[in-house]
Amino acid sequence: MRDLILGKKRYAEFVGSPEAIPTNILADRLKRLVAVGIVKAQRYSARPPRVEYTLTAKGEDLRPLIRAMSDWGVKHAGGRLPASIIARRTAEEPARRDDNDRSE
Prior knowledge:
Elements lengths: L1 H4 L5 H5 L7 H13 L3 E7 L4 E6 L1 H4 L2 H14 L6 H21 L1
Antiparallel strand pairs: 1-2
């Protein structure tokens, strides 16, 4: 989920994550996320067959929860946010404030 939230879409990108998850486990997790409607798989190449994964609306609804868990880890478990996430959050802040202003 973290990688999807950070914009990764293709299987090879997930395989390249620092956790080095075994490919059979990764494939199973992606299938499960698709099966429960959190992730959408869309074929972008027939030969060889290749799929891009994106979050569905249901998956997008998990974004604040995962962000809160990440923040908790930084605050209480000695975690550290990567610079790429800090930069992304900084860029998101003005848009988030604009969205809040419209809802009031």
